[in-house]
Design a protein that fits this description.
Two copies of one chain form a homodimer. Chain A is α+β, with helices and mostly antiparallel strands. In chain A, about 40% of the residues lie in helices and about 20% in strands. Chain A has two domains: about 80 residues, Orthogonal Bundle (Arc Repressor Mutant, subunit A), CATH 1.10.10.10; about 60 residues, no CATH class. The N and C termini of chain A lie far apart (about 45 Å). Chains A and B meet through helix 1, helix 2, helix 3, strand 1 and helix 6 of A and helix 1, helix 2, helix 3, strand 1 and helix 6 of B. Strand 4 of chain A pairs antiparallel with strand 4 of chain B, so a sheet runs across the interface. The structure holds a DNA duplex.
Chain lengths: ~160, ~160
DNA sequence: TAACCTGAGTTTGACATGTGAACTCAGACT
DNA sequence: AGTCTGAGTTCACATGTCAAACTCAGGTTA
């Protein structure tokens, strides 16, 4: 290995590091799976529980924390012919996790799932395939906003 | 909330979901912080420990798992005038976490750190500022590879 | 050569958290 | 009035976390 790249200290202190701050909120066995449910539109306590197999006590605790942190909000809604219920949906702060979500999905598909991916991300308007990447200033205008994208299942 | 968006089940099973697979590997209080150290070039057991404040027993355990999973590899290296030592550096699979890293950093900076960011990501060649985003097919060629980027500290 | 220092762990034992099963409680249905 | 369902809470036990003490190998000092 190239010894000149070795550092004895990280150049950014934990308290100045957005990545470190984010991990403290997101890095828990269940939290990101709960947020995944929210992205897919599953809002009910028992539905989330059945989908991901989380113990009730833990789900209750995590939902509480996610609401405190402003990532989810508790809302009241009513499905056709059903009574009103409460559910948990993403706030703006929560929806802003989209790129984290996509980045993890891409990595997981490539390295844990033999490159298979279950969804494609499309431009909502022209249905063009979208890809996550780092791009230069002159192309910033080409970046799609969260309102302009659509997640489509394959097959 | 728009009731038509509510689902009773996630459309992608956990076992087919790259995101879910990724969370099972990464979602632990310390794992992503250890990977952060690796990105910054901190490779030694004790240096990592001092930087992030992780207990030795836990660090030992996590490094073992990260090596098993092929995200880090244990290497032998020698600094000028020091004896040979072993350290932990990113593999290709580990470096592929760059976009996850950047996505989490962007989110954490925006939502946990008042928009302050400690680093900028530049094109290694023309020092253009780079940004993470979803872009359309005709611009795929503008996406920078991991070899072409450079993380610069602000100030 | 012996004593010491440092890095990289392992062991220990108290404490915290996670877990599944059983319990609660309120609103709607019969 | 009794039952069902959704959304939790409580319990008792297994697992994980933590700080401090211990180990062990190489290199340094006396």
């Amino acid at each position: 290995m190239r010894a000149n790249k070795i550092k004895r200290r990280a150049p950014v202190k934990l308290c100045d590091c957005g990545m470190a701050a984010a991990t403290q909120i997101l890095s828990d066995k269940w939290t990101l799976l709960i947020i995944r449910e929210a992205f897919y539109g599953v809002v009910r306590f028992d539905d989330i529980r059945k989908d991901i197999g989380i113990p009730k006590a833990v789900l209750s605790n995590r939902l509480k924390k996610l609401v405190e942190q402003g990532i989810l909000q508790k809302v009241t809604y009513q499905l056709e012919g059903e009574r009103t219920r409460s559910g948990y949906v993403l706030t703006g702060k929560g929806r802003d996790l989209t790129l984290v979500f996509v980045a993890m999905m891409d990595w997981g598909n490539k390295h844990c799932l033999d490159g298979k991916s279950a969804v494609t991300i499309l431009d909502k308007n022209d249905l063009q395939t979208l890809k996550l990447g780092l791009i230069g200033e002159k192309d910033f205008a080409q970046i799609r906003g969260l309102e302009d994208i659509h997640i489509r299942l394959k097959l």
